Amino acid sequence: MTTTTSDFRNELIRLLAKAQEFGFIAVDINAGQIHRRVGDYPGKDHRMPACCAAMLGTMTLDDEIVVQPPSGKGARLTIRYRLPRPPVK
Fold first, then answer.
1. Would you say 82 and 20 are in contact if contact means Cβ atoms under 8 Å apart?
2. Which value, in Å, is the radius of gyration of the alpha carbons in the chain?
3. Half-sphere exposure in the Cβ direction for 24 (13 Å, CA)
4. What residues does 30 pair with on adjacent strands?
5. Whole-angstrom Cα distance, residue 79 to residue 41?
6. 3-state SS, one letter per residue, for the chain
7. pLDDT by residue for the chain (89 residues), tens digit each?
8. Furthest CA-CA distance within the chain
């Protein structure tokens, strides 16, 4: 079964909700770490582009890219998500 962008987005939302529950005002999330949590990384069939797309697509104007690899998408991509999050539409 192939991991989808939705799988990464769901895990990201879960992690953000947990950080918000603990009272954090921001959390840095790294693409390599989230991909390992969801599975299939590292490996020849990894889905890093889908992982990065989910992370970038979840950003709001208050969030910031902390580290971005030269290609724009890769395991080093790290985003600082501000909390609390706006309601999901």
1. no
2. 12
3. 16
4. 78
5. 19
6. CCCCHHHHHHHHHHHHHHHHHCCCCEEEEEHHHHHHHHCCCCCCCCCHHHHHHHHHHCCCCCCEEEECCCCCCCCCCEEEEECCCCCCC
7. 688 999 999 999 999 999 999 999 999 999 999 999 998 787 777 899 999 999 999 999 999 999 999 988 999 999 999 999 887 66
8. 38
Check: CB of residue 52 under 8 Å from CB of residue 73: yes
Q: pTM here?
A: 0.92
pLDDT of 89: 60
Centre a 10 Å sphere on the Cβ of residue 15 and count the other Cβ atoms it contains: 16
Phi-psi region of 27 (alpha: psi -120 to 50; beta: other; left: phi over 0): beta
Structure tokens at 33: 């770490």
* φ, ψ dihedrals at 63, nearest 5°: -85, 160
Length of the chain: 89
Using CA atoms, how far apart are residues 84 and 16, in angstroms rounded to an integer? 9
